Amino acid sequence: MARTIIYGASILTLDADDSFYYPGTVEIEGDCIAKIYHGNPSPEVLSDPSITAIDGTDKLVMPGFVDLHFHTSVAKGFGDELPLKEYLEEVWYPSVRALTPERAYIGALHSYCTAIKSGTTTVNDMYRFVGSLADAAAKIGIRAVLSNEVALPEHKLDLLEDNEQSYLQHHGRESDRIRVWLGHEWMCTSNVELMAEVGKMKKKLGTGLHIHLCESQQEIDDIRTRYGRTPVEIAYDSGCLGPDTVAAHCVHLTDRDIELLAETGTSVSYDPGSNAKLGNGIVRLQALQEKGVNVGMGVDAFECENSPDMFELMKFGSLIQRALHQDASLAKPYNILRMATGNGAKALGIDAGVIAPGKKADLIVVDLTKNQMFTPLLKDPPKRKMMLESHLVFGCNGSAVQHSIIDGVLVMKDFKVLALDEEKLRQDMDAMFEEISEDMKSLIIK
């Protein structure tokens, strides 16, 4: 069984006891964390040639990020001035209609590569050609929950039958590192009959559901006009809510909506960057948390955020709540860090998101000397921990992530993803989007 030891590091476990080690050691055996302890292992252990030893001096070990609402991306920086409805019609939907399995594979490789490089170890990816996404995740080493973009046939996205086949063919690949859920695009490309079919399929397959809910005010107004209910109420009536459902966005929620999410144990992905960039509003984060809703964090598509960086997302997600409510005590680093790690893992049913014995070894090593981002930093452990949490949320970015370990495997070493040639991938991505940008022109449906 492969063993990896990271020693002499600051270790931010984010566990239930809020444990912190400085200096400390993490030992990994196979795909799980075996031990965490103060101090260093013996010289005899470190000299064992069968062990991969990583010197953690001036490094921080923490759980990898779980990006709870993610879309593989091909068109970042294209059409940034458009609001949600127009953006979807003129950029997003034409770009995904232009996909082939080969194009989806390149897009997924690029998206997963950039996510890993900024500290993400798990993505909850709703996109098309799930087989291509699974192949990309298998190659690069990321943990992935994958789903199709299910909509009505006239929108030329995916059908529920496509998602069922994705589940049957790809769920559980790579020793369960890759899972397949159902994906429902949103009520504006659906109807109550399709939503009910999604609920039945979810029960039939015994899998989870990734769904967009209540993202824009226009969506709420349209659905209320058509059905006299909110999208959350329709999802509830259709059997689509539950502890194995992740509802993305949830910007415009009624009190009743929040009660239904809490009652069913549905998790919410807080996507503040996307929600702000597309002009959709700000989530009622405190109301959700006060009712006990499990809230994680997601970048959404890079097109909607322009960055895969969960560090940047944590900062913006905290600051926008403080500005909205004029209250500097809200969205503390302690809580935001847990939203971006353990809460996301809980939502996806993954035994990760904290550093503790027996948990999956999905963790990152951050260089505390990188570009002065963590200076100053006290040595006294309690004060050091407090300052590290603050620096991570308010002063850091993904370029400080030096190593990434996923499922016990070192997938990024010294800032380089090991499974591929990053420069070739960049060139492939540029060439592929040249083709897609031309094809998109004929794929707009008014």
What labels would you give this structure?
alpha/beta; globular; Amidohydro-rel; Urease, subunit C, domain 1; TIM Barrel; 18 helices; Amidohydrolase-related domain-containing protein; five-stranded parallel sheet; nine-stranded mixed sheet; 446 residues; MTA/SAH_deaminase; single chain
Topology at a glance:
Elements: E1 3-12, E2 20-29, E3 32-38, H1 43-46, E4 51-55, E5 59-63, E6 65-71, H2 84-97, H3 101-117, E7 120-126, H4 130-140, E8 143-147, H5 160-170, H6 173-176, E9 178-180, E10 182-184, H7 192-205, E11 209-213, H8 217-227, H9 231-237, E12 245-249, H10 255-264, E13 267-270, H11 272-277, H12 285-290, E14 295-297, E15 300-301, H13 302-305, H14 310-325, H15 333-339, H16 342-348, E16 363-367, H17 381-395, E17 401-406, E18 409-413, E19 416-417, H18 422-439
Parallel strand pairs: 1-4, 1-5, 6-7, 6-15, 7-8, 8-9, 10-11, 11-12, 12-13, 13-14
Antiparallel strand pairs: 1-2, 2-3, 5-16, 16-17, 17-18, 18-19
Helix pairs in contact: 3-4, 3-18, 14-17, 15-17
